DNA sequence: CTGTTAGCGCTTTCAC
DNA sequence: GTGAAAGCGCTAACAG
């Protein structure tokens, strides 16, 4: 049987209350007795039963998720996953509140973060927009002892406790390697379709992609990046236009979300053009396109994993506990038509 | 505040003990009162606090892991992950026992399974060897109410509750697609190195691989499968020999574990031969080979995920609870040199 | 068949 | 500063 607070109390010759005060670093214990208790804890090898503690405390973890009101499939599924997590709330002792903010709007994000300093939830998860003000607001929360996790897009240089998302530079590099290899030794032009260069994750993907292309596939030339704002109409127009004007295009990297426009343009193109296409984010549409050969590779981040991981990490941080690092690494999923879920 | 057993007791006009009996489907309750209680549970919307229940029961989950004494890196890491899980045992209320059995030995596996019928652990996880006797032994356990999860290699046609492993047919197909595409339109021979065709996962990988090659890459010819028994020396000898005899080999698929021999042979080969190599299982050695270009793609299954998933599923089944299906899907990880962990 | 009571491991008043 | 005692939500004797 593993040791309990009673065992420590007995060993240290104090009462349960004192043991508890030491365990929870509450004041009102003489230095000398604190040391006695800490000693007992160590020699007995006590580890606290978190479940029992939570039961006694009636603890719930009020968590705040700040999500952009961005209208693409990926953000939709992220939102849906948070709602599902909320459905499991009572079993997991969480109480999840969602705050929606306009996308790519640092000021709005800061306005959402500010009041949390007062509200003091157990943890905060946010899809970060990369700006100094946001960094400062996040830092204030962390300094005030409120754990913060960035979701999907990181905020490097801030004090956030954890990032629950993929390594986007690696994603871009991987896209480049796959596209380059799939194209064999062919020479030609590559179309790059992004959402917006204002978002850190898109910038990082492009950076990784361009780096590997330059280093290892010099026969492939990147065309200037098209920013489709993740808007199907715009993407469709841009891609159709580019394809009709440039016969040398042999590959496409779509690093943003919302591929419907791209897929439409690809299906509408002339039979002559043989294209290899790498895109991000697995959705109903992109999966269908992968199956029918319109897209060759899809890189994906699993929104469900990201949300569950963020919750696990926030709860652990709130309790001052560690996490299983390997479990919290968000992997870059790579799909070809053969390994779809 | 969410409702408790007290609320149900009050609503149904019975005592806590009766509520508990109903909740746990224990005998000794009149049909009529049982219905009253069940009604109260439903209308109040009660959900049991599993943590509190476990605390009261002093519940631990005795779990048995049956692992092959197979000397390759993958099995080593699987073993290590089970040990790590055992280190977390007290926090997770598990009590994990490991039984080691000779690899590929159905009789030994059956002998390990048999006594568990008496011992009645909360759950059993095993790396299955595919044989009728094993199937029968597993079925007996499941029928006796003991949850069984297959790990890494499945036992189709049995009553096992769950399979914690990757889809190996899909893995083989994916390997074929990547190898085929990486080779562009080239024609040539492909070397296939397996561990043993007696293991289901290897057979399934080959099946998937051969199918896609036949369907979509007719210019690539599969050579007869080499069975290297996951032995470095053997693999080295086989591959070196094959490469020296056949200049037309342009690709290799290594679908077994233990790639050290393969890597050695590849590094020793003459400069003339340009090979594209797809291998399974990420290890220290294979990762290094991926980085230096000796291997082009590594397909991997995360042993840690498999073990943690098996434990979660067994605990849930033991309590008659559901699991988050998406969380328990073991993905096929695909690594190129750019997205190594 | 049903109810009373003590207790799981921990926290939290409220006295001393 | 420290301790005694009650209680978190649930289960398990033991009575009745």
What does this structure look like?
The structure is a homodimer of 341-residue chains. The first copy, chain A, contains 16 helices and 12 strands. The first copy, chain A, has 341 residues and is α/β, with parallel strands linked by helices. In chain A, the strands form 2 sheets. In chain A, strands 6, 7, 8, 9, 10, 11 and 12 form a 7-stranded mixed beta sheet that branches. In chain A, strands 2-1-3-4-5 form a 5-stranded parallel beta sheet, sandwiched between helices. The mean pLDDT of chain A is 94. Chain A binds chain B through residues 2, 47, 49-52, 54-55, 90-91, 167, 170-171, 173-174, 176-178, 181-186, 208, 212, 296, 302, 304-305, 308, 324, 326-327, 329, 331-334, 336-339, 341, and chain B through 2, 47, 49-52, 54-55, 90-91, 167, 170-171, 173-174, 176-178, 181-186, 208, 212, 296, 302, 304-305, 308, 324, 326-327, 329, 331-334, 336-339, 341.
For this entry, give a set of tags.
homodimer; 341 residues; alpha/beta; Rossmann fold; 3 domains; 7-stranded mixed sheet; 5-stranded parallel sheet; elongated; DNA-binding
Which SSEs are present, and which pair or pack?
The structure is a homodimer of 341-residue chains.
Chain A: H1 5-12, H2 16-23, H3 31-44, H4 50-57, E1 61-68, H5 73-87, H6 89-92, E2 94-101, H7 106-113, H8 116-119, E3 123-126, H9 132-143, E4 148-151, E5 162-164, H10 168-182, E6 188-194, H11 200-216, E7 220-222, E8 226-227, H12 232-245, E9 249-254, H13 260-268, E10 276-280, H14 284-291, E11 297-300, H15 303-318, H16 325-328, E12 333-335
Parallel strand pairs in A: 1-2, 1-3, 3-4, 4-5, 6-7, 6-8, 6-9, 9-10, 10-11
Antiparallel strand pairs in A: 11-12
Chain B binds a DNA duplex (16 and 16 nucleotides) through helix 2 and helix 4.
């Amino acid at each position: 049987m593993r040791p309990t607070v009673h065992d420590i109390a007995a060993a240290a010759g104090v009462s349960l209350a004192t043991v508890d005060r030491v365990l929870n670093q509450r004041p009102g214990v003489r230095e000398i007795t604190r040391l006695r208790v800490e000693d007992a804890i160590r020699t007995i090898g006590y580890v606290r039963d978190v479940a029992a503690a939570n039961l006694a405390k009636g603890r719930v973890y009020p968590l705040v998720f700040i999500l952009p009101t961005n209208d693409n499939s990926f953000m939709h599924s992220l939102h849906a996953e948070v709602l599902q997590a909320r459905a499991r709330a009572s079993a997991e002792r969480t109480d999840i509140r969602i705050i929606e903010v306009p996308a790519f709007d640092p000021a709005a994000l800061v306005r959402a973060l500010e009041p949390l300093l007062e509200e003091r939830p157990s943890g905060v998860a946010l899809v970060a927009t990369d700006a100094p003000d946001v960094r400062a607001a996040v830092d204030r929360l962390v300094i005030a002892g409120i754990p913060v996790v960035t979701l999907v897009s990181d905020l490097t240089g801030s004090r956030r406790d954890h990032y629950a998302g993929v390594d986007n530079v690696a994603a871009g590099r991987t896209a480049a390697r796959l596209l380059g290899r799939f194209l064999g030794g062919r020479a030609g032009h590559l179309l790059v379709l992004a959402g917006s260069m204002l978002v850190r994750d898109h910038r990082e993907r492009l950076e990784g992609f361009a780096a590997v292309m330059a280093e290892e596939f010099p026969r492939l030339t990147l065309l200037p990046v098209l920013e489709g704002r993740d808007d199907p109409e715009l993407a469709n127009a841009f891609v159709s236009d580019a394809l009709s004007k440039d016969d040398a295009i042999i590959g496409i990297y779509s690093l943003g979300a919302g591929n419907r426009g791209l897929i439409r343009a690809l299906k509408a193109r002339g039979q002559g053009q043989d294209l290899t296409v790498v895109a991000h984010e697995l959705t109903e549409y992109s999966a269908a396109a992968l199956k029918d050969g319109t897209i060759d590779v899809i890189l994906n981040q699993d929104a469900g994993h990201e949300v569950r991981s963020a919750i696990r990490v926030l709860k652990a941080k709130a309790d001052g506990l560690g996490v299983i690092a390997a479990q919290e690494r968000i992997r870059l999923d790579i799909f070809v038509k053969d390994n779809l879920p």
